[in-house]
Design brief:
- The chain is of the alpha+beta class.
- Helix content is about 45%, strand content about 10%.
Length: about 500
């Protein structure tokens, strides 16, 4: 190493230590707030932990969710030819039966690599593998960091990468033969921070429009020709909506901010907006695509009355509840992810559904999606990053994830691994359609920056004001939001 490189590394190390100290302080404050009953903001990455959400919501609703089973087909799986040896520590964010599934793949990995003296020691650490409560940062600061984590909160994980909490993986990925080039383009948003790989997605979720074909037919719509444009979506929604004599609503065609529509940037991204440009480091909340989205929200609320909509939605059940409005026929359509097919199978097996891409306005990202992902990361201070990378490669195989994919219809992170899944081999129509959507070059994971979580919450607050008609100038309000958080991003840089 020459002196220039050595000095650069010292400066980077100093910056990372400062970032870690600031982020640790933030997480300690956040943990204190959570103890006072506050909840974390929703984010576009939150959909990725569908199995965990399913478990928690099933407890609240009293139902028993059929989770991913703990039986992975090991036939044909072989250990890599490697000179690596030793033990490593892995923190998993999964809980309940999802943890059982993760334990099963760790057991299989240990069995395959026993002759090479390689062993994974897994610990199940709730709250996003210690990301959401500061436990991971405390371990990093104390020199006891695990060698690898998997987190179900992609947005917060990216903030950790931006603040120097994770190691760049490039050399370790190369050593074990993981080619990031094989990943879907839309997954690469989460992988890279400043041209280095810090996060590797294990799997992905696809956002779709679910619609009830029986309700469509009842309303004179053609279920074989679902809406493709925003204008057609509005027409379908109006046709499906039923208003009672007293002005209340018996059924809505669509509530735009229900389910994944409630996430900050999922629908705006599909409508064509790119909230944050990772290349330039600049926010973009004021373009015509974003204004179109906000105006759509505003016009919808005015048409159906925000107070009446709020009354309608106040008693609705959650995603994994038999009282979800799609399951009870109170909405004819909803925007949500592939995991909802399993919720329907469990709680409403007799309710018909079909899926299509989320309809878009002119200039939108047609036949596309945002990706929700679970992500692997190697914390700063990890002692066995090479072994961590080897385990990541093992986990990326379609065969290893197949049982999970079959359960939730989540997808692999590369097209080639689709061919190793049971659903593709069986010709499952929905999964084939997901594969088509997953291959769109327009896909992505929006608004990944050093203030992702705070920005998402602020955006949702602004949207709520738009719904209730409290924002006279939408573009100006978006500009003010952009200016505020651009300053925070610039400060962090």
């Amino acid at each position: 190493m020459n002196r220039k490189d050595e000095q650069k590394n010292k400066e980077e190390s100093s910056m990372k230590q400062k970032g870690l100290a600031l982020l640790l302080t933030f997480c300690m404050l956040a943990a204190g707030a959570a103890g006072c009953g506050q909840t974390a903001a929703d984010s576009s990455g939150a959909a990725s932990n569908a199995p965990v959400q399913a478990q928690e919501e099933s407890k609240q609703g009293g139902g028993e969710v059929e989770h991913a089973r703990a039986d992975i087909d090991a036939e044909g799986l072989v250990a890599e030819d490697t000179d690596l040896t030793g033990e490593f520590t892995y923190w998993s964010a999964f809980t309940g039966d999802s943890a059982t599934w993760d334990q099963s793949r760790v057991d299989l990995f240990n069995e395959l690599y026993a002759d090479k003296g390689i062993h994974c020691n897994v610990q199940f650490v709730p709250d996003g593998a210690g990301i959401n409560n500061g436990k991971l940062l405390s371990a990093i600061a104390g020199g006891t960091a695990p060698d690898l984590i998997i987190c179900d909160n992609a947005t917060s994980s990216y903030q950790y990468a931006a603040n120097g909490s994770f190691m760049a993986m490039d050399e370790y990925l190369k050593e074990v033969g993981i080619s990031v080039d094989s990943f879907f383009e839309g997954c690469k948003d989460i992988i890279y921070y400043k041209d280095s790989a810090y996060l590797i997605p294990q799997d992905a979720n696809v956002i779709l429009l679910y619609y009830n074909p029986d309700i469509a037919e009842e309303c004179g719509l053609d279920p074989d020709n679902p809406p493709k444009t925003l204008e057609e979506l509005n027409q379908w929604s109006e046709a499906m909506t039923v208003q009672n004599d007293d002005g209340s609503y018996a059924r809505f065609g669509l509530v735009p901010w229900l389910d994944s529509g409630d996430d900050a940037f999922v629908v705006p991204y599909i409508f064509g907006n790119t909230p944050y440009d990772q290349t330039t480091g600049k926010l973009n909340l004021t373009d015509d695509h974003m204004v179109t989205y906000m105006e759509w929200i505003s016009e919808y609320a005015k048409k159906y009355d925000p107070e009446r909509i709020a009354t309608f939605t106040s008693g609705l059940g959650g995603m994994f509840s038999p009282d979800h409005p799609y399951m009870t026929g109170k909405v004819g359509m909803t925007i949500t992810g592939n995991w909802f097919s399993n919720a329907l199978k469990i709680y409403a097996p007799d309710v018909p559904y079909r899926v299509c891409a989320v309809p878009v306005p002119e200039g939108g990202r047609a036949e596309s999606t945002t990706f929700g992902v679970n992500v692997f990361a190697i914390p700063q201070g990890a002692k066995n990053p090479e072994l961590a990378a080897l385990f990541i490669k093992f986990c990326l195989q379609g065969q290893v994830n197949d049982d999970n994919f079959s359960q939730w219809r989540s997808i692999p992170t590369s097209d080639a691994e689709f061919d190793n899944t049971t659903l593709i081999k069986e010709g499952d129509e929905m999964y084939l359609y997901e594969r088509k959507i997953a291959n769109s070059s327009e896909n992505g994971i929006p608004a990944l920056c050093s203030v992702s979580a705070e920005l998402s919450e602020a955006f949702r607050t602004l949207r709520q004001s738009v719904i209730y008609g409290k924002v006279p100038d939408i573009r100006q309000a978006l500009q003010e939001l952009q200016d505020k958080y651009q300053a925070e991003i610039d400060k962090a840089e």
